[in-house]
Design brief:
Blueprint: E1 5-10, H1 13-23, E2 27-34, E3 39-45, E4 60-66, E5 81-85, H2 88-97, E6 102-104, E7 111-115, E8 121-126
Parallel strand pairs: 1-4, 5-8
Antiparallel strand pairs: 2-3, 3-4, 6-7, 7-8
């Protein structure tokens, strides 16, 4: 048995791709459109996995966009997705500069939480040892829930 992917439903594919790819840094691996079922599937992987074959790749994120509008709620009910990053401060700065709220800032230089446009909770973890505490993160308060 091998873990394949986590599927999250998205209400705006463009906004979701901007968050997951442009701001968070995942890369699109493949896309499938199903006209009969009226949905699009977009599979994303972390940059460290993109050169690997699908058999060697660690888990992907599958964005499922149903063409007919639906309302999704409770994005936190499954938990969260987690990614290790080279520099948690740089990752949070890129996200914040892109308009993303840092729900749990990396005050400890190690862990932060943000949410996708559809409310999916994403945990960011510093690769290796925590970075030394730094502003503005060290004194930034939590915002909302994660």
């Amino acid at each position: 048995m091998r873990y394949l992917h986590t599927m999250v439903r998205v209400s705006d594919l463009d906004a979701s791709l901007r968050f997951w790819c442009d701001l968070l840094g995942l890369e699109e691996m493949r896309r499938m459109e199903n006209e009969t079922g009226r949905f699009t599937l977009v599979f994303l992987a972390a940059p460290a996995d993109t050169a690997r074959s699908s058999a060697e790749r660690s888990a992907e994120v599958e964005l499922t966009w149903n063409w007919d509008p639906e309302v999704y709620s409770g994005g936190r009910n499954f938990g969260h997705l987690a990614y290790k990053v080279e520099d948690i401060y740089a990752a949070c700065r890129r996200l914040m500069d892109g308009g993303v709220t840092i729900n749990r800032p990396p005050r400890d230089g190690y862990m932060a939480f943000v949410r996708s446009p559809d409310g999916i909770s994403v945990e960011l973890l510093q690769e290796g040892d925590p970075l030394p505490p730094a502003e503005p993160w060290a004194s930034m308060a939590n915002m909302g829930s994660w």
